[in-house]
Design goal:
This is Exosortase family protein XrtG. Helix 3 packs across helix 5. A hairpin with a 4-residue loop joins strand 1 and strand 2. The longest helix has about 35 residues. The protein contains 6 helices and 5 strands; from the N terminus they run H-H-H-E-E-E-H-H-H-E-E. The mean pLDDT is about 90. Helices cover about 70% and strands about 10% of the residues.
Length: about 200
Amino acid sequence: MIGIILYGFLWVMGLAALHHAKLRFWKFLWGCVGLFLLLMILVEPVLTIYLSRYVSSAAGLLGEWTNTYSSFFEYGILLIESKSSSISLSVDYECSGVIEILVFLSLLWFFPVYRFSEKIMVSIGGVLWIFTANVLRIHLICILIYLFGNDIFYLAHTVIGRLVFYGLSVILYFYVFTRAQIVRQKVGGFRYEHR
């Protein structure tokens, strides 16, 4: 606990020094990396448990709706029974989306384009987007296993599922960071957005 307090103190002191020196890029870098590490230490262990359960539960609803697989909410497990075999998938730390959510929030809260109230709204929308993208990824993996059997697990999980998830993440990052930066930039007296 003392180590965490010391880490937090050094992080805040570093932020204050970089803010005072008006080193915006280094402040952004120091802030988002430091916040991510702090969230990984304090929030990740608890958040992973709930995310695993809710992701498997939401994916399970899609599985029941399509009558292709079922979920066990309390264990974060999905059971897929195809014609020739069955397989269970455990939604664990890696599949919960917790890392992607914490990275997104860490970047957002030190991204200088948004006001405080906007950051709250974008945080909520972004977390929901990442959660939904992860559920769709898990659902797609389960559907592919259901249709083509266990042999497709590696391809579905490692390649196809990740392509879908990261494709949706790129869309989110484009609208939240790239587009917002372009729309709100000011070149001389010209700007796209009127405030």
